Amino acid sequence: MNETVNTQQGERPPILAAETLHKSFRTGSASVPVLTGIDVVFREGVCYTIQGVSGSGKTTLLHLLAGLEDPDTGQILYRNQDISRFSRKRLAAWRGRAIGLVFQAYHLLPELTALENVNLPAMLFGQRDPKPGWELLEAVGMTHRWQHRPWELSGGEQQRVAIARALRNDPEILMADEPTGNLDEETGLEVIDLLLDLQKSRGKTLVLATHDPRLAQKGDQQLVLTGGKLERVDPTSAASVPISGPPKHSLESRLEPESKTYL
Ligand SMILES: Nc1ncnc2c1ncn2[C@@H]1O[C@H](COP(=O)(O)OP(=O)(O)OP(=O)(O)O)[C@@H](O)[C@H]1O
């Protein structure tokens, strides 16, 4: 990656940020710390990969970023708004519109066709027009299977449908948690290339968690989760640089003023 690309990405507006996130899980009498101080800013239209070994906390971090779980301490800021201050209803509405989620296990509803699965997120907001779902099935090359139920599709086909579903509400941010974890190598690479094509052509921010270094290298910005903290991989030196720790300024002051009026 050259310096120009890095500079351009650095100038893009922040869309989602985490500030001094901590998260532990209690098992019996023991408290297991998983995230021990995460500070990170995600910018519009950039693909971030988060690499980490199994159990390092990638899923936990994505859950916190999407407001699916609460941190013990720290904040998630969406366009300078602390999502912990959202009501439950507003949080669910924000997640449904701003974030598209792609999971390792697809999570398609078995009783629905491929097209109905894609349109489901919009139906939850009262939109019944099937055309956008059809266009998304076209974008992922799956219109020929529109009537199939998930169990009539291969793993790669199910993940294509799941990617189309994640895009259905035109979210600004895509989050993908080990999206190729259940796929063979060749299919996995096809699915990742499709995801990256759609992310770039539609200008989405993508946060992609993977344990696979080859997939992690596809990110514009490569992050590594280790010891409960995030490090940034410097592609020129292949070394990782810590980015966690107490911020010098609050994230509020680092986010662009124009973003404060969003929502
Ligand atoms: N609800 C929970 N209760 C107790 N411990 C949990 C819970 N959720 C996660 N953990 C623990 O937190 C750690 C991080 O889990 P997490 O699923 O975030 O890791 P991961 O990096 O996504 O792993 P993988 O790549 O295997 O999916 C693990 O040690 C896990 O056992």
Automatic annotation (TrEMBL):
<dbReference type="InterPro" id="IPR003593">
    <property type="entry name" value="AAA+_ATPase"/>
</dbReference>
<feature type="domain" description="ABC transporter">
    <location>
        <begin position="16"/>
        <end position="252"/>
    </location>
</feature>
<dbReference type="InterPro" id="IPR027417">
    <property type="entry name" value="P-loop_NTPase"/>
</dbReference>
<feature type="compositionally biased region" description="Basic and acidic residues">
    <location>
        <begin position="249"/>
        <end position="263"/>
    </location>
</feature>
<dbReference type="GO" id="GO:0005524">
    <property type="term" value="F:ATP binding"/>
</dbReference>
<keyword id="KW-0067">ATP-binding</keyword>
<dbReference type="GO" id="GO:0005886">
    <property type="term" value="C:plasma membrane"/>
</dbReference>
<dbReference type="GO" id="GO:0016887">
    <property type="term" value="F:ATP hydrolysis activity"/>
</dbReference>
<dbReference type="GO" id="GO:0022857">
    <property type="term" value="F:transmembrane transporter activity"/>
</dbReference>
<comment type="similarity">
    <text>Belongs to the ABC transporter superfamily.</text>
</comment>
<keyword id="KW-0813">Transport</keyword>
<keyword id="KW-0449">Lipoprotein</keyword>
<dbReference type="InterPro" id="IPR003439">
    <property type="entry name" value="ABC_transporter-like_ATP-bd"/>
</dbReference>
<keyword id="KW-0547">Nucleotide-binding</keyword>
<feature type="region of interest" description="Disordered">
    <location>
        <begin position="235"/>
        <end position="263"/>
    </location>
</feature>
<dbReference type="InterPro" id="IPR015854">
    <property type="entry name" value="ABC_transpr_LolD-like"/>
</dbReference>
<dbReference type="InterPro" id="IPR017871">
    <property type="entry name" value="ABC_transporter-like_CS"/>
</dbReference>
<dbReference type="InterPro" id="IPR017911">
    <property type="entry name" value="MacB-like_ATP-bd"/>
</dbReference>
<dbReference type="Pfam" id="PF00005">
    <property type="entry name" value="ABC_tran"/>
</dbReference>
<keyword id="KW-0378">Hydrolase</keyword>
<protein>
    <submittedName>
        <fullName>Lipoprotein-releasing system ATP-binding protein LolD</fullName>
        <ecNumber>3.6.3.-</ecNumber>
    </submittedName>
</protein>
